[in-house]
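Contributing new complexes? Match this layout with flavin-adenine dinucleotide.
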Amino acid sequence: MRDHIVFYVNGVRRAVDIDAAQQTLSEFLRSSQHPHSERLTGTKIACAEGDCGACTVLVGKPTADGKAIAYQSVDACIAFVFQMDGRHVVSVEGLRASGGLSALQTAMVDGHGSQCGFCTPGFVMALHGLAEEAGTLPTSLDDEEVRIGLSGNLCRCTGYLQILQAATSLRPDAIASMSQLFDESQMLSDFAKLGGEAVVMESSDGKVVAVPRSLSDLIRFRTEMSSARLVAGATDLGVQRNHGLFEPVEVISTCEIPELQTIAVDGDELVVGAAATWQEFDEFICDRLPEYHQILLRFGSPQVRHMGTLAGNLANASPIADSIPFHFVTETVIEVESTRGPRRIPIADFYKGYKQIDLAADEVITRVRTPLPPPDVAVKLYKMSKRRDMDISTVTAAFWLQLDGETVADARVAVGGVGPVVLRLSQAEQSLAGGQFTLDSLQAAGAIARSEVTPISDVRGSAGYRLQLVENLFAKCYYDLSASLSVAVS
Ligand SMILES: Cc1cc2nc3c(=O)[nH]c(=O)nc-3n(C[C@H](O)[C@H](O)[C@H](O)COP(=O)(O)OP(=O)(O)OC[C@H]3O[C@@H](n4cnc5c(N)ncnc54)[C@H](O)[C@@H]3O)c2cc1C
Ligand code: FES
Ligand code: FES
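Output block (do not edit by hand):
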């Protein structure tokens, strides 16, 4: 058992105790980390809630075979230092290892991609992250790839055109990779030696951070520390911490457990481990569930998807969580475990009220089991928000329609953002089941749906607007499915 966290910052080894481990990564980088180390203030903090990307850094993790380090962009303002054990963190200052400005930084200067410069380190690091993922592509990234890759970065003065042009002016193989800038062999052998050892850090005033590395250790820690908070990607908890709603006084990290990082198809079920990130999930499902993939393109930003998890989204229990309606219509089952054994909970029973879930203090979510829609089922998902990218949904919806020719054999509809929990609309479903797949039948079901929801007015929309959205989504579903199924629009 280790009592400290070990990670590298710009190629330099750091071994830190609990006080540093409980900081956010941006606080750690910007503060004086060591008597002889510089403050890495190129990592900016603007929103402190993952919304602007000014704090973007690269976080590298050894690949499964331990032979290389794979880097992804992360918002340092909502990541905790204890999540960095066994990682290589590269801040914008790390790019100096290229001997001056990196090729990307030069392209930004030459292309006038920076005015006040406050957002620039974040853009540069996000672009380096894209280049890392693209690897040795001999062609430039296209506008759309760069636009999606930068959807988590805001610039308030330059305008995006120059930044996009600077980014697309370079081929990824013309940009120095992190493995070219840093000697990774030393880090990899250090990480290998640290290996599968759990970390438990305690302070004299009762603070505890535990980073288990096996499911059995996680379950044991959960029982021994029943008041501790589980932390997966921290994309919800990091924001709560910066808003003063959560202090990482007693925490158990779930993100280092190999058993919980797997994603697989088991029979006709998709089985997702509780520590698999949204990025890993998306790569696995993009061809199997293209409709879900479209939602994930608009789920937060790459930085958020590189850390956040499905389990965290389900456990956070927001009624506007974008994943939940799909899991309601597919009748997903949530697997939880404790020292008392495993338990399976149908998702409809998991939510007990606003932000209340059926999870005992000694239990953890281990896996999420989702029946894959059979071939005769058409699925449509909707994330209705004021802005296309990086916005919180006003209403979310999922339609699951089993079609026999032009007859709806069975129908399932779930909506979020219209009550304290996501709801299945049983009366609307009944009105659809057994009927014809026509605009009239969908519109009639939409009118019924209005009576099944109880939205409130808030900053994202009035109750009346939400009611109308729910009703209209039924007609939209008809038009969208008609187009893809080639059913004549009546
Ligand atoms: C900028 C930004 C944009 C976002 N955009 C979206 C969006 O478009 N759509 C959307 O739905 N959400 C969005 N979110 C919210 C967040 O990213 C998601 O809810 C994410 O899936 C949370 O996962 P996590 O692993 O980061 O959870 P964490 O923050 O680590 O944890 C969230 C909750 O889950 C609990 N938990 C985690 N793992 C387990 C487990 N194994 N067992 C039991 N409990 C557990 C934690 O204790 C905590 O209560 C956004 C967040 C940010 C910061
Ligand atoms: S400071 Fe805005 S995302 Fe971190
Ligand atoms: S250059 Fe000023 S915010 Fe982007």
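Reviewers usually confirm one structural detail per submission. For this one: The longest strand covers residues 395-404.
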